[in-house]
Amino acid sequence: VEELIARDSTVLSISPLEFDLSDDFIKTNEQDHYMCEFFEMMVITQLLAMEISIRLGNDVDMPRNLAKSVTVE
After folding, report:
1. Cα–Cα distance measured from residue 7 to residue 22, given in angstroms and rounded to the nearest whole number
2. What pLDDT sits at residue 57?
3. What is the DSSP letter of 68?
4. Cα angle: 66, vertex 49, 1; to 5 degrees
5. For 15, phi and psi rounded to 5 degrees?
6. CB of 44 within 8 A of CB of 26?
7. Alpha-helical regions (H) of the chain
8. Which pLDDT band, with edges at 50, 70 and 90, does 60 fall under?
9. For a 10 Å CB count at each end of the chain, is N or C smaller?
10. Within a 10 A sphere around the Cβ of 25, how many other Cβ atoms?
């Protein structure tokens, strides 16, 4: 994380505990099982990636450079 900060990157932390070195912070709920926290973070990360893609003007329903076998119905 310190190397990212040294290279002037934005650090986003997704956690139930606040991280002092991060620029942005998304607070999650503390769960009883560690896998529940993992799945919650996966959903947050996917939604964040979709929002960034939309704001950059990319079509999230038709990604580029995807194999034809995946896109053919």
Report:
1. 14
2. 92
3. H
4. 115
5. -165, 160
6. yes
7. 2-6, 34-55, 68-71
8. confident
9. C
10. 14
